[in-house]
Amino acid sequence: MTYEEALEYIHGTYKFGVKLGLENIKRLLELMGNPQKDLRIIHVAGTNGKGSTCAFINQMLIEAGFKVGLYTSPYLEFFNERIRINNLPISDEELAKITKYVKDKIDLMISQGFNHPTEFEIVTAIAFEYFKRMNVDFVVLEVGLGGRFDATNVIENPELCIITSIGYDHMDILGQTIEQIAYEKAGIIKEGSTVILGLQRYKEAIDVISKVCKQKNANLVEVRSDYKIVKNTLDGVIFDCITPKGIYKNLEIKLLGVHQVENALNCIYAFEYLSDKYNIGTGALVKGLLNAKWNGRFEIISKEPLVILDGAHNIDGMKVLVDSCKQYLKDKKISAVVGVLKDKEYQKMLSEIKEVTSDVIFTLVPYQKRAFLDNEAKEIALDYGFDFIKDFKEAIDVSLKKAEKDSAILICGSLYLVGPARTYLKSIF
């Protein structure tokens, strides 16, 4: 199997849709010898901040000298990004080899009368197999959707569970209330496990997680908001914080926004838990926070003109983005290229972004079945007083032409827009 054939096979399973449940993935992994059982896994769920939290913890463990597997979704620019070891994406050759191995097991399970695994189940199986073959010390594993029935939730004994900020997203699947959504996220909590609960916007989320921890006899560690921002500019954020176990001064992160400080706190609490068991010094924490990168999240792709990419793709994410604009861009005239998927709370998201922008071009999210049709998008643009340009590249070109010295261009609304936009912008600048 070639790399191209592997990708064609993986993406060809998109037609099997999203099927939440663990029966299929369990059978597939059994046929593969259960590679996940040989891995030391840090499992991360939540609505917002999962990826950044994973990036911080991943980098901290690398700085401590460990070999670290990182599994995230979706990818921004190319598929292999989703499966990495010490920040290096899986090679085309390894992906092809392991996909062939997994496909053979899938053919066998189908012959046994099982359903065909979904795309996400297949990619998760490939990741587990790769990490086992490469003998990694830790895996930082990001949940795909929800938690309880997510394919990553086949793991039985996580080293640590982390639940980041819970908000409204994927409500058609996870439920209409914060309690329902939190319950799905709490599905990653295992009997007797340790759970770090990040800072929450909604008290109901804390109540649900606390209740599930009690039922599962799990040790709940709640992150405290005891931090102080020392410096906050486009060059980075410096902060102090106090936890029940320590005092930290002048920690620096390059990921921008107060919310990223809160994601960094998840890493600090993870450090305090892990350093009791493993050789992870404070220096690894400090360097991990400083050197962590997570592209497409208030990422400055160009300084002249100032162009910022942000993957905010739900209402809470958009509110955080608006706060960041007020913090960093208050002396700028902000224009935006915005594309959202139609299964999101797009009316609320567009109302938020309108608050801080002088003009907006509404565009289509490329290559996505969940994108608006042309006429739907035109109508939405008209309702909000936005311009509409169908092609995102053309929309970016128009924004760049109009840019003045004191302006900032924001490209946001969906990671599925930000990824292709990032590739396109790198070809320009």
UniProtKB/TrEMBL annotation:
The Mur ligase central domain extends over 44-270
Q: Name one GO biological process term.
A: folic acid biosynthetic process
Q: Name one GO cellular component term.
A: cytoplasm
User: Per UniProt, which keywords does this protein have?
Assistant: ATP-binding, Folate biosynthesis, Ligase, Magnesium, Metal-binding, Nucleotide-binding
- What GO molecular function annotations does the UniProt record carry, in alphabetical order? ATP binding; dihydrofolate synthase activity; metal ion binding; tetrahydrofolylpolyglutamate synthase activity
Name its pathway. Cofactor biosynthesis; tetrahydrofolate biosynthesis; 7,8-dihydrofolate from 2-amino-4-hydroxy-6-hydroxymethyl-7,8-dihydropteridine diphosphate and 4-aminobenzoate: step 2/2; Cofactor biosynthesis; tetrahydrofolylpolyglutamate biosynthesis
Keyword Nucleotide-binding listed: yes
EC numbers for this chain:
6.3.2.12, 6.3.2.17
- Provide the cofactor list for this protein: Mg(2+)
SUPFAM superfamilies per the record? MurD-like peptide ligases, catalytic domain (SSF53623), MurD-like peptide ligases, peptide-binding domain (SSF53244)
Q: Which InterPro entries match?
A: Folylpolyglutamate_synth, Folylpolyglutamate_synth_CS, Mur-like_cat_sf, Mur_ligase_C, Mur_ligase_C_dom_sf, Mur_ligase_cen
List the catalytic activities from the record: (6S)-5,6,7,8-tetrahydrofolyl-(gamma-L-Glu)(n) + L-glutamate + ATP = (6S)-5,6,7,8-tetrahydrofolyl-(gamma-L-Glu)(n+1) + ADP + phosphate + H(+); 7,8-dihydropteroate + L-glutamate + ATP = 7,8-dihydrofolate + ADP + phosphate + H(+)
Q: Where is the Mur ligase C-terminal domain?
A: 296-414
The subunit field of the Swiss-Prot or TrEMBL record says: Monomer.
- Assigned protein family: Belongs to the folylpolyglutamate synthase family.
What name does UniProt use for this protein? Dihydrofolate synthase/folylpolyglutamate synthase
What are the leading ranks of the lineage?
Answer: Bacteria, Bacillati, Bacillota, Bacillota incertae sedis, Caldicellulosiruptorales
